[in-house]
Hints:
Low-confidence stretches: 1-26
CATH architecture: Clam
Oligomer: single chain
CATH topology: outer membrane lipoprotein receptor (LolB), chain A
Amino acid sequence: MKRLSQIITGSTICLMLVMMSGCVTGNFGDAKIDHKTKKTLKNMSETLTDSSSLSYKATGYIDIIEKDGTLTQSYEEFTVSMLRPDKIKVEAKVGKRELTMWINNGNLVLLDKKKRLVAQTDCPANIESALNFLANKAASTIPGTDFLREDPLAALVAWVSTGSYIASEIENDEKLDHLLFTQGPVTWQLWITAENEALPKRLVMTETGGLLRAQYQVEFSDWSTAPISATSFIPSIPAKTKAVDLSKIANALEL
Length: 255
């Protein structure tokens, strides 16, 4: 199965994943975002930044309709843990591959379990800069990267043109706030839990420009702000694992 980046290299959705992972600070800028949407995003951002640790699961789906009408699909699963100020762990199932990434105090390790390959490199010694390094230098992104940043709100709306509150919805007895944003040829939607803690539930991005129609969807679950032991972020490398360059593994982590 082709990867999204192989099918639509340079597409708006791929670029958007990197753009949304940029290091930004500030407020809503020139974006036209209604009051209720701003308030909902602020509540979510505060929930995400109030805790020193976060963990969640993300299930990603990509549907691409090519010019000849061919439908290409992919499916990936991620478990993400973070401990501020300098630790991230990602466990990913990407096709038939099983990958684990550790970022720990300026050290990045990426393991392909089945192929017995491991890559290691220095990276910035804080989460914000390490995420930028991962996107810009290692050509990889993590679903929900913006939610791990120092200012999730600023990261999410940095490139947005408009934002609207669509509706309050009930799904499986859970109340959700449904938001809609426009960003060039991409429309993206975000569902946020509306009771107890305000946390991301679903992100859907749709590209309608160019020669392809593509939709990227990620479902978030099992959010936790419970304390995480620092020992969870120490790499565990199996015996007889071959050391390789980061580029040999990193692009497999990208949605």
